[in-house]
Design brief:
13 helices; alpha/beta; binds iron/sulfur cluster; Transcription Regulator spoIIAA; about 425 residues; Rossmann fold; globular; 6-stranded parallel sheet
Length: about 425
């Protein structure tokens, strides 16, 4: 059997997509060694110009190192750069997102194929396990109807569409019976789940929670306007992780407008407070250095970040993406300024996180994953990392209730006593 190596770039959704392709191989065998491969499938990311060049550099270096290997471009980059790379013979074939489940057939085509498919498809594959992990990621939807100025994603992943409910429930049932207890629902825009099918995320969550073996559910990321009363109602359920990730992207209204975001600060602040009052840790995404972010906008934003009950942040330095509205905007922020702002916001939220952990250092329910040298790591219900020393007992994939932990700079610690 010919061997296929998958090189995955970008986000968790892409990793998940690679899992689908691997699970669909019949006439080929997946390998984890690039130098053993007859074919390399590059599951690419195109979210920024930088992501495009990482993919291009990998392909060029692979061509140099392994002139005999067949290179197939898959993932988001196949939609934005596929035609170009194929016409310049940098890759031997291109396959779009909707074609993943046909991978066996596609890899058997003659060189030069361009199987881009459509952007309406939703995968049907049930992935039953994720080796070496105790948390399972479940993709419940694909695509996005929002049109944020800086983002290329809707153009390469299409509009929002939801996975069929029975598919998701079947997938989770199988994983739960294989020993998975924590489920993380992911997608391009998770909070839009169900809108195209007249269903709702809250109803799906309730159904998942009633599957035997499901102990904790996390939602990947939500937009503020997607948190409706039905979702607020289930926040007290025992199976909900006590952490929500709500993507704000900025806290200055002028910047939110420039980014064509649908959220505005005052409502965001009220929402965060209501959720924090229910005992939740809250994380967010934040783009630093988007065009137009002058010193005034930044100072306003950072003062607001200080007043928000935030515990986690994914701060990104804005990176230009050709083909987006933001790429054509003036008032570009200098790289060193953006980097300094990035550091500032990270430090502020890291301190907020530490203070939160100091006041939440008891009664933590942790799922420990794999360990090394007698130290195991996992996450508590607030999505804070906990390391535990256990020189003699293997704690991989173990749930544990910790009465008390020691709070460190950026994680919590405990010592296991049998
Ligand atoms: S919500 Fe905005 S940033 Fe997120 S995928 Fe959709 S368009 Fe992109």
């Amino acid at each position: 059997m010919k061997k296929v190596y998958f090189k995955t770039f970008g986000c968790r959704t892409n990793q998940y997509d690679t899992g689908i392709m691997v699970s669909r191989l019949r006439r080929y065998e997946a390998t984890t060694e690039e130098n053993e491969a007859d074919i390399v499938v590059v599951n690419s990311c195109t979210v920024t110009n930088g992501a495009d060049s990482s993919v291009r550099n990998y392909i060029s270096s692979l061509r140099r190192r392994r002139p005999d290997v067949r290179i197939v471009l898959a993932g988001c980059g196949s939609h934005s750069r596929g035609e170009d790379l194929l016409s310049r013979k940098r890759v031997d074939g291109v396959m779009g997102h909707s074609e993943k489940e046909r991978i066996d057939e596609i890899l058997s085509l003659e060189d030069g194929f361009y199987e881009i498919g459509d952007l309406k498809h939703i995968d049907d594959t049930v992935v039953e396990s994720f080796s070496g992990r105790s948390r399972a990621f479940i993709k419940i939807q694909e695509g996005c109807d929002f049109r944020c100025s800086y983002c290329i994603i809707p153009h390469v992943r299409g509009d929002a569409r939801s996975q069929r409910e029975e598919r998701i429930l079947l997938q989770i049932s199988k994983l739960a019976s294989n020993g998975f207890g924590e489920f993380i629902l992911t997608g391009t825009n998770v909070g839009s789940y169900g809108r195209d099918r007249g269903e709702s995320l809250a109803t799906l969550l309730k159904k998942i929670s009633s599957i035997r073996g499901v102990r904790r559910i996390r939602i990947g990321s939500l937009e503020p306007i997607q948190i409706d009363d039905e979702l607020m109602e289930i926040l007290d359920e025992e199976w909900m992780a006590r952490h929500l990730h709500i993507a704000l992207q900025h806290t200055s209204d002028a910047m939110l407008e420039a980014m064509n975001r649908r959220n505005r600060y005052e409502e965001d602040r009220r929402l965060f407070q209501r959720i924090a009052d229910r005992g939740y840790a809250i994380g967010t995404d934040f783009i630093v250095g988007h065009p137009g972010e002058g010193e005034g906008e930044w100072r306003e934003a950072i003062e607001r970040v200080k007043e928000l009950p935030l515990t986690h942040i994914h701060a990104f330095t804005y990176s230009r993406r050709d083909g987006t509205v933001s790429a054509g905007m003036g008032d570009i922020v200098r790289g060193d300024v953006a980097r300094a702002r990035h550091r500032e916001i990270r430090e502020i939220v890291a301190e907020k996180n530490r203070l939160f952990r100091l006041s939440h250092d008891r009664d933590l329910r942790v799922l420990f994953e794999n360990g090394k040298d007698g130290v195991y790591r996992g996450y508590d219900q607030y999505y804070n990392r906990v390391s535990i020393e256990s020189p003699h007992e293997d704690l991989s994939n173990t749930w544990m209730d910790l009465e008390r932990v020691e709070v460190g700079i950026d994680e919590n610690f405990a010592i296991y006593k049998a």
